[in-house]
Each structure stands twice: as C-alpha cells, then as structure tokens.
Amino acid sequence: MTVVNGPSIPQPDPNQAANNLLLSYYNFPTAGFPIVLFNLGTVTVTGTFDQISANVKAWSSMPHYLAVTDGLRITGTSPNLTGTYQLALVGFLQGKSLYPPVPDGTAPAAAAPTGPPSGAPPGVPPIGGGGAPSSTSTPPAPSRRGGKKGAGASDDE
C-alpha cells in the first residue's frame, strides 16, 4: 500500500505563552476542557481492497485520539485501487499529563479561612485543616440504634 496524500498535524508555536496555547491550540476554556480538533482533509492511498480497508480501520486504534473517517471512495480496477476519504481527529488532554501545572498568570489564591465553615456546628475542623475538633465542641449524643442488647431489651433502657 502507498500513501499518496497523507495528513499533517499542525504543531503549536513553541514560543507561545501557556495560557495562549491552552486557548488557541487546546480550545480551553471554550470547549470546557482541553481538546484538540483537527480537520486533516483528504487522505489518498493506493493498494488492494484489503490494504485500503486496513488503512481506514487503523485510525480507530490510534491511542489518545478519536479519529473520524468519512466519505471513503474507492476507484480503479482490482488489485490496483485508489481510496480517498476525509479525516478528522479529536484529542483529549488528560489532566494527569499536565505536570507541572500550567500557570494561569494570575495572583496566588488567598489563604484558606481558618475558622469553621459558615453555618457549621462547633467542633468542625477549619477548612483546609485537619486535626481534632475544638475544645468547645460537644460530644455527639450516643445513638440508640445498632447497640447490642440482651434478649427482651427495649429502646427505653
């Protein structure tokens, strides 16, 4: 099989700032998450019917991308055939692939509040903190359910 006219993936400008790269190349936040969309145009291959079919099907096994082929047209006389189709690619950028995190160019976030969340009962640890409840907390009342009771015991005991 021979590829007569194959796709070329556009590359981002390596001198572009990270924020602009996410916006222009990865369509973020426009699409809601980082994604690349490539309409790669016409692909033309020559070979046997099985070779052309294998070429079109191979796009479905491309890792980390969704390839869409459309409008396959086969011309010629077997075994010398020419296949022509349109190709588009969608690629999702996985969050764990972003290491280190991409800076957004804004000021650092304010420190987390140190008091309990608004409307929280006393004893709730501060936001962003852990640790033990404050000394002003009241221990919860014991549950009347789930305890072991002897035979014939009632809830009033």
How is this structure best described in words?
By secondary structure, this protein is mainly β. It has a domain at 16-94: Alpha-Beta Plaits. The chain is 11% helix and 27% strand. It has helices at 18-24, 49-58, and strands spanning 2-5, 35-47, 65-77, 80-92. A 4-stranded antiparallel sheet has the order 1-2-4-3. Strand 3 and strand 4 form a beta hairpin. It is elongated, with a radius of gyration of 31 Å. It starts with a strand and ends in a 65-residue tail after the last strand.
Short description:
11% of the residues lie in helices and 27% in strands.
So how many helices? 2
Helix content: 10-25%
Radius of gyration: 31 Å
- Main β-sheet description: 4 strands, antiparallel
The CATH architecture designation of the domain at 16-94 is 2-Layer Sandwich
Low-confidence stretches: 115-121, 123-139, 145-157
Strand content: 25-35%
List keywords for this structure.
157 residues; mainly beta; Alpha-Beta Plaits; 4 strands
List the helices and strands and how they pair.
Layout: E1 2-5, H1 18-24, E2 35-47, H2 49-58, E3 65-77, E4 80-92
Antiparallel strand pairs: 1-2, 2-4, 3-4
